[in-house]
Amino acid sequence: MTRNDYERYAAAFNARDYDAVFDFYAENPRMAFFGIEITTREQLRAFYTFLHRFVRETITIEKFASSEELAAVEGVIRIEGIEDLTRETLDANGMQAFFPIAKGEVQEMRQYIHYHLKDGKIESVGCALV
Predict the structure, then answer these.
(1) CB-side neighbour CA atoms (13 Å) of 58
(2) 3-state secondary structure of 7
(3) Side by side, which strands form the sheet with 121-129?
(4) Which of 5, 13, 32 has its CA nearest to residue 125?
(5) Under CATH, which number does the domain 3-129 receive?
(6) How confident is the model at residue 38, as a pLDDT?
(7) In the chain, which ranges are E strands?
(8) Residue 12: its pLDDT value, please?
(9) What is the pLDDT of residues 64-107, one digit of tens each?
(10) Which residues pair with 118 in a beta bridge?
(11) How far apart are CA 110 and CA 78, in angstroms?
(12) CB contact at 8 A, 83 and 53
């Protein structure tokens, strides 16, 4: 995966084109973050369709490095509330590790993301917030 490939991935994510996002993944990927695990296109679409009803989420890439087996990204994730997302709603949807956000509120978080690659496709994802 090159920087240009990742920029296309981020552009698809920022545009909410979940099918284009999932096309970057290997068959049977594993995305696990903050208590959520996604292994299929349908799970990815369902998770982000739900989340993005409440927030506008964008990735800004600051640093990128890659090899045959790994792509590492450092960037800022910007979350803007477009509808109130309450603790009750998060908990009811298995998202206990996520933070509530009110409409109009903005949260920016530095994120470090590791993408494990197989044949140029994302096989698994791990991330950490600062």
Answers:
(1) 9
(2) helix
(3) 36-38, 25-33, 121-129, 106-118, 70-81, 55-66
(4) 32
(5) 3.10.450.50
(6) 86
(7) 25-33, 36-38, 55-66, 70-81, 106-118, 121-129
(8) 94
(9) 999 999 999 999 999 999 999 999 999 999 899 899 999 999 99
(10) 121
(11) 9
(12) yes
